[in-house]
Structures are given as C-alpha cells and as structure tokens.
Amino acid sequence: MGNRVYIFDTTLRDGEQSPGVSLNVQEKLEIARQLARLGVDIIEAGFPIVSRGDFESVKIISQKVKGPVIAALARTADQDVDAAWEALKKAETPRIHTFIATSPIHMQYKLQKNPDEVIEAAVHAVKRARGYVEDVEFSCEDGSRSEMEFLCRIVTAVIEAGATTINIPDTVGYSTPEEYAAIIRTLREKVPNSDRARFSVHCHNDLGLAVANSLAAIEAGAEQVECAVNGIGERAGNASLEEIVMALYTRRMVYQKETGINYGEIYRTSRMISTLTGMPIQPNKAIVGKNAFSHESGIHQDGVLKERTTYEIMNPQLIGLFHNNLVLGKHSGRHAFRERLQELGFELNDDELNRAFNLFKALADRKKQITSHDIEAIIKEELGAIPEKYRLDYLHFFSGSKVVPTATVGLFDGETVIEEASIGDGPVDAALKAVDRITQLNTVLNEYSLNAITGGKDALGEVTVRVQFNDRFFIGRGVSTDVIEASVKAYIDAVNKVAYELEKNGNSFPKVETKE
Ligand code: KIV
Ligand code: ZN
C-alpha cells in the first residue's frame, strides 16, 4: 500500500447540491482555479446531464483549468455518459465518474431493478465510458448499506469492464468508522482483481461522522478520499476537505499518509467558497471557523503567549491565516495593487484589474488602512460579476427610533437613472422595496447575513443575500463601509443574476431540473 492519499474535491458537484446553493459558470471557474492552486488531485466539476449550467461549467473548467484531473458525474444511462464526455473532452486529464445504487432498498424502490440488472447497467456504463477515456470511476451509491457479497460481485465486474477507481459512498451518512473501514478492507481482500483499481471513499455527515469514517477507511486501505471545502453538500454535507487533510498532516505519525495539498491555500479557499455559495462558516468549525485559533480564557492566552503549542496543535499560518496584515493605502499605485493581488492568488485580466483597482481607490477614500481581507472582499465582489442590468447610482435613507424609515434609490440601467422611494420596517427594508419598485421583479429576500471583514469602526461590511425568484435561488454579495449600501448592492447583485438568467432564456425562466 502506497502512502499517498488522493484528494477528490466534490465542492462543485455534491457541494453545489447543498440546499439553496446555485453558482454561476464564472463563479465555478473561479472556484476550480482556486482548487487547482490548493493542490487537489481531482476536481469533480459537475453533473453535465442535469442542466445546461452544469454542462457549461464542466466544459469551461475542462478547457481552462490545468493540473488536476477533471471529473464529471453520470448515471449509467448512455445519454449521461455521453454528456459527461461531451463536456469533458477538452480536459487535459478527464475522468468519467459513473454510478448506480447497490443497496437492496435503493435497487428495489428507486431503481426497480434486480441485482443482475444493476450489474449489467454498471458494466455497460463503464465500458461506454472507457470508450471515451482511460480514467473511469465507478461508485456504488448507498454502498455502506449494500450487501457485502453483492458489493464484491459488482466491484469485480466493473473493474473487469475497465473501471480504474472504485468508490464506496456512505451516501446517507449511516456508517460508523469500524463498519466502514471493514467494508473497504473486505473489498480489497475479497475482490480478485482489486489490485487493478484505486479504492475511494465518499462520506456524508448525517451523524457527524463523515471525517471519522473517511479517516478510518484511509487506514483500511482507501487511497482516494472524496470531500468538499467547508464540508458543504447534500443535507448535513460531505466530509470536510480541510479537516481531513489537516488531520492527516497534524497526526502524520499515526496515519503515515501524504497529500498534494498546498496547506497555505486552505483558509483562502474556505473563505472563497463561503462567500460565493453564501453559506456562512460556523464560528467553531474546525480548522477554518473564526474561533478555531482564538483563545478566550486567560489561562489559555497566557499559555499560548508563553509557548504557542500549549494550546495550539496547528500553526494557523500553515493554513494561510495571517492576522489582518496591513497591506495598502490611499497612495498605493496600480503596480503595488496588482502585485498584492498576485500574492493573494488572484489572476485578473486587464479589464477585471481596472474595475478592481477603481473599487480599491474608492474604498481607500473611505478607509485608511486596507488589509488583504478587504482586498479579497472587493475582488470577490468583482469576480462574481455577470453583466449588470442595474447599478446603484445613489442611495439616501432616513431612519431613527421615532421616524418611519424611508429610502430613495437611483439605479442606472445602462441608459438612464431610474429613481424610486419607499418606506419600510427599517432602512434596509425600505431601500430593497425601492429597488423592487424599479426592477418590477417578484424577488423574495430569503436570507440575509452581514459580516465585518476586518475590525475597527471603518471596517468593511460584507452582506450576502439569498433571493428567491420562482423556484430558483440567487446569491448576491455587496461590500461597503456602509452596511445599508452593502445590503442594497448585495440585493442588486442577486437581482442582476435573475435578470441575466431571464435574458439568456429569452425571458422565460428555465424550469428547475432535479439533481440526483
Ligand atoms: O453520495 C453519493 O452516493 C454520491 C455519489 C453519486 C457518488 O454523491
Ligand atoms: Zn454524495
């Protein structure tokens, strides 16, 4: 058994299946680029048959992101496998990942197929995929609740058909570490051709055991682990990438395994995923939570000041967490700004750089000291950009404890500035109602969160909103030193995404397609 563990990142596929998350193509490409910088071995870029957006994202990521293997998911049907290949074919190293359920409950009720029919479908899909690519992964969906004897039969058959990676998901997060490790160990021992494939694990977190199960399976011989940044994914999510890689690293004397991860990119990647998906990170989240490295009690603070390792088992700097480092100010020029962006890992084209530099200058007029976190925030605002149907031209609001909150908003629609005013329950409510009057879209504000990017009274406020339009959700972000302005910008960002989708589809909103 080698000592390398391959990191298969499914943030863009299973992670994107998190309720309410919906990333556009540009955002997915940006995430894929960051995952490549993070050093993951495989990026599962999407499920091409499911929607045009997924297909386009896999296609663009395949064309533009070099380094990691790019994988696309497919059920066993011919159209699925063909769509996966169509989307992947420009990738440097493509992988088709096909799957079918193997547990009695899924075969009987969901698939309505008997075990022989399931093996036949799996073998057929693997052979079809091998007709396109060398690298084919096969997953036994609900593998942890499947009968061992059947698992051995189907795994033997798909390896014979050409599968090069065998994944055994704990699809419903039901397994315990001992049970799950035993499945992997048994397959490796009992499947006669097991030496011809790499074994992989994919754990969901319904019982909070996803990371423990993944690590137990690695000890039992799994060589690939499927995970998502910040642990996002269906229901309670997937095993968290940062927790797995930091456990393998911090306890390397126990696991004796290596990954290809660039640890210094972990924190930045986590923040990017949180911002773009609109899914906040709980403060006590291991590795990347706001409190993961802060010490509250006097005894702990005293210990850390004397010797960091008294209460810190990991160095926060290893994951790229530098405390609020001062970077640029009002007099910094374009050159310094570009250099700092490069250090932060952003690659912007000239047009993006110009827009970002203008935002930076505007911010520098309002805020004395600009930190790397501030810069990340304005860049992310810029990168998510899709064509702007509306741009905030001006905003006035009037609020207080004994007045009716009122707001006036001017939105530039490319030709003129349209003005509306409204009252509301508070200044944010009033301003968003004024925006609604202008756009005339029936959008509903579903979620709202406000974060201070850095400390200090002039801190940047970052607002993330989730807006519902028909049965689709759109995430919007806005950043400003004024939180009401940040709120309006975030709302307009989401509304622009709605408008963009409407225009792309000739004004008829696409019917939502179900994800597996
Ligand atoms: O959880 C699961 O079973 C999956 C498979 C499609 C790999 O996501
Ligand atoms: Zn899954």
How would you characterize the overall build of this protein?
With 516 residues, the protein is α/β, with parallel strands linked by helices. It folds into three domains: 6-277, TIM Barrel, CATH 3.20.20; 334-382, no CATH class; 391-505, Double Stranded RNA Binding Domain (2-Layer Sandwich). The protein contains 17 helices and 16 strands. The radius of gyration is 24 Å and the shape is globular. Mean pLDDT is 91; it is low at 511-516. Bound molecules: 3-methyl-2-oxobutanoic acid and zinc ion (ZN). Zinc ion (ZN) is lined by residues 14, 169, 171, 202, 204, 234.
Give the arrangement of secondary structure elements:
Blueprint: E1 6-9, H1 25-38, E2 42-46, H2 52-64, E3 69-74, H3 78-88, E4 94-101, H4 104-111, H5 115-130, E5 136-141, H6 148-161, E6 165-170, H7 177-190, E7 198-203, H8 210-219, E8 224-227, H9 241-250, H10 252-255, H11 266-277, H12 298-306, E9 326-328, H13 334-343, H14 350-366, E10 370-371, H15 372-383, E11 391-398, E12 406-412, E13 417-423, H16 427-439, E14 444-452, E15 461-469, E16 472-480, H17 483-504
Parallel strand pairs: 1-2, 1-8, 2-3, 3-4, 4-5, 5-6, 6-7, 7-8
Antiparallel strand pairs: 9-10, 11-12, 12-13, 14-15, 15-16
The protein binds 3-methyl-2-oxobutanoic acid and zinc ion.
